[in-house]
Amino acid sequence: MLTIQNVTLNYAPELHGVESMPVVGWAINSDRKNVEQTSWQLQLSRDAAFSQIVFDSGKVADDRSQNITLSGIELAPSVWYFVRVKISDNHGQQSDWSEAAGFISGLPGDQWQAEFISVEGPEEKDSSKGTLLRNTFAIEDAAEVASVIVHASALGLYKLYVNGQKVGQDELAPGWTSYHHHLLYQTYDLTALVTVGDNAIAASVGAGWYKGDMSFNRKRNYYGDRTAFICQIVVTLRDGSQRRYGTDASWLGTDSPVLFSEIYDGEVYDARREIPGWHSVDCDTARWRQAEVVAGNKGVLHAQGASTVQAIDTLAPQALIVTPRGETVIDFGQNLTGWVAFRVRGRAGDKVTLRHFEVLDAEGNVYLDNLRTAKQRIDYTLSGAGEEAWHPSFTFQGFRYVHVECWPGEINAENFSAVVLHSQMASTGEFACSNPSLNQLHHNILWGLKGNFVDVPTDCPQRDERLGWTGDAQIFCRTASYLMQTRNFFAKWLRDLHYDQTAEGGVPHVVPDILSKKCDDNWLLSQGTHSAAAWADAAVINPWTLYLMYGDKEVLRQQYPSMKAWIEFMRAHAVDNKWSYKLQFGDWVALDAKEGSYFGATPNDLTCMAYYSWSTLLFAKAAKALGNQADYETYSALHRDIVDSFQREFFTPTGRLAARTQTAHILALYFNLVPDAFRARTIDTLVELLAEHDGHLVTGFVGTPYFCHALSENGRASEAWQLLLKDDFPSWLYQVKAGATTIWEHWDGIKPDGTMWSPDMNSFNHYAYGAIGEWLYRAAAGIDTDEEQPGFKHIRIKPVIGGDLTWLKARYRSGYGDIVVHWQVEPGGDTQRHVELRVTVPHNTRATVILPAECQLMATDNIAFSAINNECQATVGSGEYRFAYRL
Ligand code: BGC
């Protein structure tokens, strides 16, 4: 039986708000092996029953089942569409129509009649209070109504309600973008929420990233000094005609019970100020005031569609602790990002105060110092009306522990839960092996992702920073994309990267860029706010990584000018391919830094040139993928020239690499900058540099991500495993042994003697070093894609077996279906190991299984292996396979 599963639209099962026809993909199910699609047919309909088909592709002879782009389809605004697919395969089988996947079309900015409205006065620019806005709209004849769709956004943050009910699952909407260029609106279907007659529509609005106090420099009003809300309701009648209602001066507004709310500092809420029925039709609005229309550029409104922030999970407390200092603390057992929800009873005016934090100090007391100026504090005043259930709205905290500073009556852990917030993304990675510490490391990497993918990829979620540091996002992109479906998340952020690029192509250190605006009095940033090697290279590496992982040319096309501008920036600042520009972070926080310094020992000119070559190479490949032959040739030539300069500058005639650091050797090897004749010497020196530290790394942000790759790709797999499995300081597993539940910013966040790194910069939820996750999937499990057929259309399976593990199993849910690699090792004889390798290859893909040349094959499932490139290889079609061999 041939069936279709998981039809996706822009890689999501359902899209709410999309302004042009989304990219379509599907997975194939069959009870046969070696299944390859031979043709597809796709229909687009206005209804789920497919009685109003607006497009039919007819039968298309084509093997692609991902990244199908359809041009020339004009979408009507604000209505549902449904897509279904049927296919045939190489076994002569024909599928039925798939289940339909639906999307709601968006409303391009120039079609908005609604206005931005506010009840904040211009004099309230220093306030971070909340406001409420409301209005009613009438539905005359329900039988005539086909759908009621709303599109909404804000300058600030908003929560939307219809007839007293919260609309949708989104939190912290509209998220954080380069607001002046790119403001996202969210789209919801209200059809089931509205009734005949009057309906109430209402919004609660807060300051958020738009207006609140942000960055370590603590300045406010980066984008504007007045919050505002905008929404457009589109009622589509059965005859296809549309009626529109939206925000305008007829709306009413008032102050909300949110007295204060900011991203870093938390929320102050007075439940005594709640207005009964404020979001329902029956509300006494006598004291409400008229909203004002405020200026706002509707031309920058764009549909978000998918990957909004939501409450994804809820964790129960693990323990209630009384610290030696007498503080009552709830331990959720997991460092996370979100907020605490609680239930409380008491008298009107009673108070709840919560402080959120990540770690206890060496004595086991509350530790707030590493939050710097971020208060992470909740102040709630009770209304006294029975049981009150509450959580904040316009803030989030990074925490494992909550100090209950004030609470009416006895503190009972059951009244608290931790709500985990992050951008909604499908989970795509699973990893388990026989080493429990490694499993915990994988867990910590995943929670580092969850904690820092809150609308933008942030460095950390707790201190007064939480910024979209480009370097961190670059380093972690591939790992993140094994763990979760990141395409929409990163595509959104990359758009902002482009918007915030300087006219010359410079890439800001953080995206959205707020540092260039008000941070010139900061000691570090006064030296430069954009264009640091490895950070700015996110402009090229991230789109390329998405292309590798998803095979999607849309994002590559979207980012192409941005990628090119960044290469040109480096070229403009280069002499003999050696470029430099103001502030460089180098091998940030490497342990070979001078005492007390953040800057590692690897010279900046080496890091700059190494990344210049790498980004130029990837850009040339992107040009080729997009069919731009002229750029491909130009930038391939530039790349060769940079490599040449690098070799002349950094290698002595006898092959010594001038900078004797681990990171310099890692970059040279991984970025292919080593002359062939010197490769053996370079790898030997890297191994020596490891041995000098007793097998430990001393690398920072730049060298660490590629360390194990540089070893395992150069015949030193056992050193890679040894490095990974070290569990004394400094190492990945040192933190695991110390009880970490996320990844630390510093190898010595908590030092072996129990003291901590300076509170100036000591996050316990920083995903950067979690970039080792890529090695777990791509090397240890060996699940990789072929860049000629990216997105796992052609899979490369080349597990790096080692580390005394007896088994390892990883699953990657590609668009085509699950790719599974499961290896088991049994010691046999003196040195020989017996390996059993089980592999699942999804339909409509092929996989090349690559085993070591020296292996003795025992069982091959009737697959013929041959010796190619000093390896033992076989290419297989879809299905499940079991291979056994001796090593
Ligand atoms: C951040 C880093 C970031 C760095 C720039 C720090 O404050 O937390 O992760 O990349 O600054 O060097």
TrEMBL record:
EC primary class: hydrolase
Claim: Hydrolase is one of the keywords in the record: yes
GO biological process: carbohydrate metabolic process
Keywords tagged on the record: Hydrolase
InterPro entries named in the record: 6-hairpin_glycosidase_sf, 6hp_glycosidase-like_sf, Alpha_rhamnosid, Bac_rhamnosid6H, Bac_rhamnosid_C, Bac_rhamnosid_N, Ig-like_fold, Rhamnosid_concanavalin
Start and end residues of each Alpha-L-rhamnosidase concanavalin-like domain: 323-422
Protein name: alpha-L-rhamnosidase
Source species of the chain: Phytobacter massiliensis
